[in-house]
């Protein structure tokens, strides 16, 4: 089990259960933000652009809003690190180049 050093992963209850189950424990060094910087940035952007802006009444409303935001983020929103292209377009272009003989799902 590889985790960060968050309190939920360093508690005795958690580590003891893993040890009793024979699971080896590995923890990233404290402050190793580079290990998950990309997902942390994604969650921050999602929270500030979608979650915090609207008070939704139900979990299903929130789920639908997040699904819609993720679709726009991946398929329509330009990303400067990708030359102004959305991630899905870059992914499928790379996939076409790397596997030209295979049938590939097209993103529109």
Identify the notable features of this structure and list them briefly.
108 residues; mainly alpha; 3 domains; two-stranded parallel ribbon; 4% strand
Give a concise summary.
The chain is mostly helical and 108 residues long.
Helices and strands, with pairings:
Layout: E1 2-3, H1 7-10, H2 12-20, E2 26-27, H3 37-51, H4 59-75, H5 87-98
Parallel strand pairs: 1-2
How would you describe what is shown here?
The chain has 3 domains: 1-31, no CATH class; 33-77; 79-108, no CATH class. It is 53% helix and 4% strand. The chain has helices at 7-10, 12-20, 37-51, 59-75, 87-98, and strands at residues 2-3, 26-27. The longest helix has 17 residues, at 59-75. The chain is extended and about 45 Å long. The relative contact order is 0.07.
- Percentage of residues assigned to helices: 40-55%
* Biggest sheet record: 2 strands, parallel
What is the 3D shape? extended
Query: Please, what is the average pLDDT?
Result: 82
Q: Topology as H/E string?
A: EHHEHHH
For the CA atoms, what is the radius of gyration?
19 Å
**Share of residues in strands:** under 5%
Query: What spatial order of strands do you see in the largest sheet?
Result: 1-2
């Amino acid at each position: 089990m590889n985790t960060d050093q968050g309190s939920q992963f360093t508690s005795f209850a958690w580590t003891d259960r893993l040890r009793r189950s024979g699971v080896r424990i590995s923890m990233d060094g404290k402050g190793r933000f580079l290990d998950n910087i990309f997902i942390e940035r994604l969650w921050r952007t999602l929270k500030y652009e979608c979650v915090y802006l609207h008070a939704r009444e139900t979990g299903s409303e929130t789920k639908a809003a997040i699904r819609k935001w993720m679709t726009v983020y991946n398929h329509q929103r330009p990303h400067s690190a990708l030359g102004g292209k959305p991630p899905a377009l870059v992914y499928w272009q790379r996939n076409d180049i790397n596997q030209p003989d295979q049938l590939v799902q097209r993103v529109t």
